[in-house]
Design brief:
Elements lengths: L1 H10 L9 H9 L5 H13 L16 H11 L10 E6 L5 E7 L8 E8 L18 E3 L2 E3 L7 H17 L6 E7 L12 H6 L11 E3 L13 E10 L3 E2 L9 H19 L4 H6 L7 E8 L7 E2 L2 E10 L5 H14 L14 E2 L4 E2 L1 E4 L1
Parallel strand pairs: 3-6, 3-7
Antiparallel strand pairs: 1-2, 2-6, 4-5, 8-12, 8-15, 9-11, 10-12, 13-14
Length: 362
C-alpha cells in the first residue's frame, strides 16, 4: 500500500483525494497484513496447485480454481457490497484471468496497476521435495508449497491488499488495479492470458500511470526487469542406421554445433551494455540458452532425421525485443552448416547426394 498511497498523494490535485503526507502516513499506520486472510487464500491456492501445473500437453492448468477463490473472497467488498470492481475475463473455458479495480476519482485517466501475478505454476515432482508440494506447510515464519513464491503467493498478497483498500476506503485520485493472469508458465500458447488481454484492449488504460510487474520468485524485490523471447530451432538431417554414420546427416550433432555457433554470435553482439548492467545490479547479462530437446520416436541404433531445440532469450532493458529477434533471424539465415565442425565420420553435407542439413527457426 505504500506505493499506492505515496504515488497518489504526491500527484493528487483533487481536494477530495488524499493530498498530504500526513494523510498517507495515517492510513499506512492503520494497515497491517491480515495473516488469517493471507493464509486462508494461500492454503486454498497451494491445495489446488497440483491442478494448476502448466506443462502442455501433459499438464493443463485449471486457473479458475484460483480465479474463483479471488472473486469469492472479494465478493463482500465488490459490486453492490463495496467499492471494488472484480471481473473474470475468460478466453478459454476454465482458464480465466481476473481484473480487480479500486476506482479513484480520476477514473481510468490516472491509474496505478500491479500486473503479472499468475495463477498457474511450474510442475513439481513430489518425490524430489522434502515436503508435500501440494499442501501449504508452515514452519515458524516460513511457508512451503509449490507456488508460494512463484506466483500464487503474490496473487494472495495482492488480493488481501485490495480487501484492505475496500475496508479503509481511502479517497484516491488514481484508480488502483491488479491483473491476475492465466498461462504465464507456457506463454508460447497464445489466446489465453496476458497476450489476449492486451489484444482485446483490456490493458490499454494501464498506460495512464505506473505499472508494477509482480512476479519475482525467490530472488527478492526486482528493481528493473527484462524481456523474454522464446525460440525453436528444427535441424533437419538424413535418417540412417547408426552403424553407417557416414551415410547420415546427424541432426543432433548438427544442432549441438549450430546452437553453439548462434550463441557465440549472440553473446558477442549483446554485451555492449555490460557496464550499465553492473550499475543496475543485474547479476547476469542478456542470455540465450536451450532448455528442451525434442526428437522423433526411434531406436538407439537409428540416427533420427530431425531434432528440435527450444529455449529462451532473457535480455536486459537496454535492448528492444525487435532488435533481439532480428539478430537471431540473421544468425540463422547466415548459418552455413557445411562449415560447422564435426567429429569422426559425421558430416552435415553429403556432396555425392547433393544433400545438406537445414535449419528452421520459429
Amino acid at each position: 500500500l505504500f506505493f499506492i498511497v505515496s504515488i497518489d498523494s504526491s500527484s493528487s490535485s483533487s481536494s477530495s483525494s488524499m493530498s498530504s503526507s500526513s494523510d498517507a502516513k495515517q492510513l499506512l499506520s492503520s494497515i497491517e497484513l491480515d495473516e488469517k486472510d493471507f493464509i486462508e487464500l494461500l492454503d486454498h491456492a497451494i491445495g489446488n496447485a497440483e491442478k494448476l501445473q502448466n506443462h502442455p500437453p501433459e499438464l493443463i492448468p485449471q486457473e479458475d480454481l484460483m480465479a474463483d477463490k479471488v472473486v469469492e473472497f472479494l465478493a463482500p467488498y465488490s459490486g453492490d457490497n463495496g467499492p471494488l470492481e472484480v471481473r473474470k475475463v475468460t478466453y478459454k473455458k476454465g482458464r480465466s484471468n481476473v481484473i480487480v479495480k479500486y476506482p479513484g476519482s480520476a477514473g481510468d485517466e490516472k491509474v496505478l496497476s500491479f500486473v503479472g501475478s499468475h495463477m498457474d505454476v511450474v510442475p513439481a515432482n513430489a518425490e524430489e521435495w522434502k515436503r508435500n508440494p501440494f499442501q501449504l506447510i508452515q514452519e515458524g515464519d516460513k511457508l512451503y508449497g509449490r507456488g508460494v513464491t512463484d506466483c500464487l503467493g503474490h496473487v494472495c498478497l495482492l488480493t488481501a491488499i485490495f480487501k484492505q483498500l475496500a475496508v479503509k476506503k481511502p479517497a484516491l485520485e488514481r484508480s488502483v488495479l491488479a491483473v491476475f493472469i492465466a498461462n504465464e508458465e507456457a506463454s508460447e500458447e497464445l489466446g489465453i492470458g496476458i497476450d489476449e488481454l492486451e489484444k482485446q484492449g483490456e490493458l490499454a488504460y494501464l498506460k495512464n500511470g505506473p505499472l508494477y510487474w509482480v512476479d519475482s520468485a525467490d530472488i527478492g524485490p526486482t528493481l528493473g526487469t527484462g524481456g523474454v523471447v522464446c525460440w525453436s530451432l528444427t535441424f533437419n538431417g538424413k535418417k540412417f542406421h547408426s552403424g553407417v554414420p557416414q551415410n547420415a546427416i546427424n541432426p543432433i550433432e548438427m544442432a549441438m554445433e549450430g546452437v553453439k555457433a548462434i550463441q557465440t554470435r549472440f553473446y558477442n553482439d549483446f554485451n555492449k551494455y555490460a557496464e550499465k548492467e553492473k550499475v543496475y545490479k543485474y547479476n547476469v547479462p542478456s542470455s540465450m540458452k536451450p532448455t528442451q530437446w525434442i526428437t522423433p520416436p526411434g531406436s538407439l541404433n537409428q540416427i533420427p532425421g530431425s531434432v528440435t531445440v527450444q529455449g529462451d532469450i532473457r535480455f536486459t532493458p537496454f535492448y528492444h525485443s525487435s532488435e533481439v529477434i532480428a539478430a537471431i533471424e540473421k544468425y540463422v539465415k547466415e548459418l552455413d552448416v557445411t562449415t560447422l565442425p564435426s567429429l569422426g565420420a559425421s558430416k552435415f553435407h553429403l556432396p555425392d547426394e547433393d544433400l545438406k542439413g537445414t535449419v528452421e527457426l520459429k
